[in-house]
Amino acid sequence: MEKIISTKYLGNISIEDENIINFPNGILGFENSKRFVMIDFPNNTLFKFLQDIDNENVSFILINPWDFFEDYEIDIPDKELDTIDLNPQIENTLEIYSIVTLGSSLKESTANLLAPIIINIKSKLGKQYVLTYTSYTTKHKLIAEGAGE
To answer: Which of 16, 64, 89, 134 is the most buried (most CB within 10 A)?
Structure first.
């Protein structure tokens, strides 16, 4: 079924119920936000919005971390994947994103590689998983120092 939601960045948009992703535990700092939809960024394939469908003021900008950090490596335990009904044997059902914090320019913008958003696109379940025993942080620059200069 189709419904109209208010979004933080794009005004009112139409979404399909089957595109709603449930985050049973919310997202860190936004534990009451449980139902989201992914929205393509206008004219830019590298970014997406993760918009809370019940609160227009809660919207995250996401990237596929490998688009910016080719050597990004994570290990998510099976017990964590079980919480989003993910069977590792079924291919192409897991999507992984990083939340972006916008700076005054793209050069000042950062990605949270420490706590990726993991989504089972088949079951429409998601969660934020905090990595352990890693050097990743919440503030990795999207554009490396000196790049493009």
So the answer is: 64
